[in-house]
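explain this:
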Amino acid sequence: MQPKTAKIAIVANSTWNIYNFRLNVIKLLIQNNFEVVVIAPVDHYISYLNQFSEVRHVPLRSLSRKSTNPLKDLSLTRELYQIYCRERPDLVIHYTVKPNIYGGFAARQCGIKYLSTITGLGYTFLHDSLIRQLTQWLYRMAFRHSEKVIFENQDDRQLFIEEGIIRPEAGISLKGCGVDIQYFSPNGFVKPPDTLVFTFIGRLLYDKGIDEFVRAAALVKKDFPEAEFWVVGDIDEENPAAISHDQLLAWMQSGVIRYFGPTSDVRYYIKQSDCIVLPSYREAIPRVVQEGMAMRKPIITTDTPGCREAVEEGKNGFLVPIKDAEGLAAAMRRFRQLSPDQKHTMGRYGRQKAEREFDDRLISRQIVDIIEAVIA
């Protein structure tokens, strides 16, 4: 057996995050003869190990996404410190807020190199508060010794530089985490023309623009009652921006939306849709937008960091202001007026853009190149 090149630890706030966003990097690391250890709280997405018998998963017990208790965060730092000192990886890659901050402190204490990855700024950056100021200060401290800070869009990198959180030379921006353009493929499917379907796919968070989607749907339905508005996703109860179950039931009972719940395979709903809609307040580069583009679907999203890096106005979709249900409804009406050929042209351009920029093989290769340069 060929000796391993180096040992890489990948840390995130959930196994769900690993399963949905990091498997392309894990696969390429294994192909390049790295030893891979994943450190994350265990959930039912631990089934990813069935695909990677070479990977060891170390359960993380002290990480609570919801908690702002400093004692719990101290416990997380201590637990990560113990794991890092025991495992002695050559490099740790941190994803999501708490691993970036407290994992950075722990790796520094152990004398282990680490990379930090900003996968979107999340709730704390979208809501101006003391918690945001504290988070920025903690990032500044944690990133001081990070080998590099990887961002999944250009705007987030620029913001961190302007706020003095990182040095310009420390930040690297990529095009999101990438999407499997072979798995998310049109496959010759042609949607029946008898309905017009706008679909929201994602966690049911106010910050994702779900409220604006429903209000815009109600406005459009007044003029075009035949239009359908689908919602696919689950309530993320650990997120402060989550909608309530009562709110979801009220929307369902209104008849404005059709709610399909969560799914492990969004392709069915993307195929049946005319347009994918994500009115998010801020993103890295949204995965569902990349998936929709890969399947030749036009996109309506917001003119905000991450989203505008994926959608070119008028070419593969439309951009609207954030928190603007009327502007979103106007874009939906505008989309309805397009001819079938215009819609198909938008979809084709989106697919070509996904192939050029968002292929997860390209993104994972860029990440592994960074890893190899840091280790070398």
